[in-house]
Amino acid sequence: MDIRKMHEKPPYGMIAIMFVGAFVAFLNNTLLNIALPAIMDEFSVKPSQVQWLTTGYMLVNGILIPASAFFIQKFTNRRLFITAMVLFSLGTTLAIFAPTFSLLVVARMIQASGSAMMMPLLMNIMLTAFPIERRGAAMGIFGLVMFTAPAIGPTLSGWVIEHYTWRTLFVIVLPISLSVLVYAIFRLRNITPNRDMTLDLFSLLLSTIGFGGLLYGFSSAGDKGWDSPIVYGTIAIGGIALLAFVIRQLRMEDPLLDFRIYKHPMFALSSAISIVVSVSMFSAMILTPLYVQTIRGISPLDSGLLMLPGAVLMGLMSPITGRLFDKYGARGLAIIGLSITIITTYYLSKLNLTSDYYFIMFIYTARMFGLSLVMMPIMTNGLNQLPMKSNPHGTAMNNTLQQVSGAIGTAILLTIMTKRMESAGAKLFAEASATGNVPTAADSLALFKEDLESKAMLDGINFSFFIATLVAAVALVLTLFVKRVVPPKNDAAYEDISDK
């Protein structure tokens, strides 16, 4: 297939069905979050065990996404997508009927092995199917799926759990994934180029230990504490393995993940901004429900509904932002978006024990609107500077860094919240003791401690939001150096794409 002809008439039907497959895969990332207590009750497992349903899913993503550059170049997009949907559907089916908790964890990991390929594969197809001057709009549509699907997960999950069992969540997903699979088998064709490559198993091992160790270590820090040997041990091992992985890739002629793409300054800058923005974005997704549910006692469903408008708006804005990017570039959009993000995050650092529900919803929604002007334009601007042969490496790198930075940022901000909460609690207790306001009766003392804990946690959450405000300010400073790139010419190897 001539790539010029494809640019004149992109395969919209094929891309649409891939979007549906990606949507259910992304939806599945957050679908179980609110269902975890129900699963704990059914299988009689502890919180530290049930977390493996999300940790295991995340680890498989962290292991496979870095290797996606190899798979996308080695195998046709048709074969990869069908394999991904088969694995995802198989995992979903096993989850519906899983008789034990261990099998449910295995089912989630099988699901993850399919969904891990979706984002880098679809991003690579978008970069190949659309000419440079229309990539912003195309990637904006992709953003609609990427941001909206995970946001719907908690709200849908909360409603289903109130009326049905947690297995219904998988029953809803299965028919959609099977329909996409059947369509893909009969209608999907190849539009991305391939070449003969050999998988370097040692690089894959280092990547698995490196990214897997970092993700597991930082994700476990909030539960186990930073002084746990499992936490600092896995982070240390992951860091050493990752360093060895990077050195090995730089020395290889045909690396698993090409770090030489960072010689392109706008791609390097876009990666740095994306990392900082991811830290700020994920913090609100964790801290806001923590405040709403733990301090205010609002139900999980209402907590999900509070966050839903912001996520839906972010998704709906993504295609609009994409078109604005094609016309004006990334810098202006990102400066406006990050300014809104900084102001709204600062307002979230001023919450109190009686902050209005709809005020919080408005601020959170406005914050997500600001972020919608930043994420996809900055990412697309960086990818536009890469030659087409480097697109698989660029998409793999972006998705990997988003996973890792999200986990690291969340762990650090939760730690900041915990430490601040401890110091605030001690200070409040000392002040009450000094003025003789600590009750002696058992019932009154229990209420006093509960009130003190709420005030201390509020102080910790507010302080973490303030740190997130400073993080967003760092991203704004970096954005000032963004330039609109002139993309390189298409590689000769991409002029003729086999229709195998």
TrEMBL record:
UniProt-listed InterPro entries: EmrB-like (IPR004638), MFS (IPR011701), MFS_dom (IPR020846), MFS_trans_sf (IPR036259)
Membrane topology, record value: Multi-pass membrane protein
Stretches assigned to the Major facilitator superfamily (MFS) profile domain: 14-487
SUPFAM superfamilies the record matches: MFS general substrate transporter
Protein's cellular compartments: Cell membrane
Signal peptide: none
Keywords, sorted A to Z: Cell membrane, Membrane, Transmembrane, Transmembrane helix, Transport
Transmembrane segments: 12-32, 52-72, 84-106, 112-130, 137-160, 166-186, 198-218, 230-247, 267-292, 298-316, 328-347, 359-379, 461-482
PROSITE patterns named in the record: MFS
Domain of life: Bacteria
Family: Belongs to the major facilitator superfamily. EmrB family.
Name under which the protein is recorded: DHA2 family efflux MFS transporter permease subunit
Organism (species): Sporosarcina siberiensis
Upper classification of the organism: Bacteria, Bacillati, Bacillota, Bacilli, Bacillales
